[in-house]
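RECORD TYPE: inverse folding
INPUT: structure tokens
STRUCTURE:
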């Protein structure tokens, strides 16, 4: 895993466990899926993004098998997140 390109200004108080493209990952509770992945995931496994306000649709992921906009969705403990690069069909 390469160094993440983003860091929170303050260390989050609480972390939750999700699975990202089949791998376990801890992300800050209360942040958007996009923010959590940008902090914790490397470039290769982070979703693409541009606006971070729900308009460009570049951050679409699947969460528990349903498509979602990562910048407008908060993760829950145990969520299974798949980035588009990992979608098989
Ligand atoms: S980054 Fe543009 S919709 Fe999420």
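DESIGNED SEQUENCE:
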């Amino acid at each position: 895993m390469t160094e993440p390109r983003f860091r929170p200004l303050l260390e989050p108080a609480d972390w939750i466990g999700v699975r990202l493209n089949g791998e376990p990952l801890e992300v800050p509770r209360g942040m958007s899926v996009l923010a959590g992945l940008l902090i914790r995931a490397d470039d290769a496994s982070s979703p693409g993004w541009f606006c971070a306000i729900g308009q460009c649709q570049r951050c679409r992921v699947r969460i528990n098998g349903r498509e979602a906009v990562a910048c407008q969705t908060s993760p829950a403990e145990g969520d299974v997140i798949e980035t588009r690069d990992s979608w098989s069909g």
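NOTES: The helical segments are 33-40.
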